[in-house]
Each structure stands twice: as structure tokens, then as C-alpha cells.
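Running this now, will post back.
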Amino acid sequence: MTELNDLYTYSSVLGDSENDAGTFRVDLGPEGPALQWSDGMFRLHGYQRGEVVPSLELIFAHKHPEDRERCEEIVAQVSRNGGFFCMYHRIVDARGKTRRVLTAGEGFLDGNGAVIALEGVTVDLSRTLQRETEQAARDAVAGATATRTVIDQARGILMGQLKLGSDEAFRMLVSTSSHRNVKLVVVAAELVQLANSPEARTYLDRAVRAIQLNSRPDRAGGRRVG
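Update: finished.
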């Protein structure tokens, strides 16, 4: 029996570091299913080649308990009807490590329309998802920090131009945000941009006066801080 080769993978998050992945084949004969695994499939399940004999029972035993039933249903359906299949699910390897994997493949038919084999690949997405989650968290923190910085800068401009306290300057920004129905950070960014532009002397005073006007009690509405 020819051993299966592993596949080439690429993750835009991991760069040159490849995903853990493997290929498999299930031959559906009268004596029952016979499985072949590439070396990568053994590694994904926490084994080395020769330690275990691949079987459907072994595969399903490593599915996460919450995912196993649905995975069994899909494999059974493809084994009856053929066609393509794709499953994003979790497996628990022999060391107890939970991996988030994507399994995709196809059920092949013979000339009589009977399914004779399943072939496919399994790719471990755990590291990719972890990196993306970490990056999203970093971006969120950076975005929140940048927002606070812009608002603080705009508040400082109003404090300097109108000789206001910090709280009163902030209330002016909030009131203008509500009056214009735009986010507070947009109002702040526009003011900071004007202050840093070559036309600052011409337009900054007008912008500050507009914010001062919008913050009058008869103009103020509900606050829109976000």
C-alpha cells in the first residue's frame, strides 16, 4: 500500500512557518473501511507512525465530544452519497491537547454510483487562529489608545484656546458630537487635524467657536461618546 504524502500549506499569519497538516484515504470495501494516514495525520493525533492503526473508530474517538456526533453524520452521509465535505471542528490528541482543525475531502464513486473511497486533508488551524486573536487584541488596544490620545489632544486645544478646564472642554466635545450626530473621536480628529494643518491660523478659531456654539445648553442633546 502506497504511503500518502503530506501537503504543502501556507498561512498569511504564520508566514514561513507551516501549519501542521496531513492527508488521508478511506477505502470502503466489503470487508469494512481501510484507512491510510500520512505522517502528518499521525502527528495531528499525537502519534508516530507504527504506534496505532488508523481506523474510523480511532478518528472519532479523538473528535471533541461536542463535535463528534456532527462529524460522524457528515462522514456517514458522504460514505453513502459521495461528494465534497468540509468540517471545522476540534480534535483532542493522544496527549490531551485540543486542536482546532479543518478537514476537507471528497467521496469518490465507481461506475455503478457506489462510494468506493474518501480522500481528504486535515489542517491544524490552532496557531493561525491564536495569532489572529492576539493580533486583533493588540489592534483593539492600539485603537483604543489612539482614540484616547486624539480626544485628549482635542481637549487640550480647547483648553488652550478658550481657557477652560479639562472637564468643561470634554463636555464641549461631547456636546458637539451629539449635535452633529457623529462619533466623538471624529470631532476630536477634525480639530486636531485643523490644529496641525498649514491653515490652522485661519480655520482653527472658527472650529473652536463652532464647538463653543454647539455646546450651549439650548443646543445640547443626548451624548454620543462612542
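The longest strand covers residues 98-109. More later if anyone needs it.
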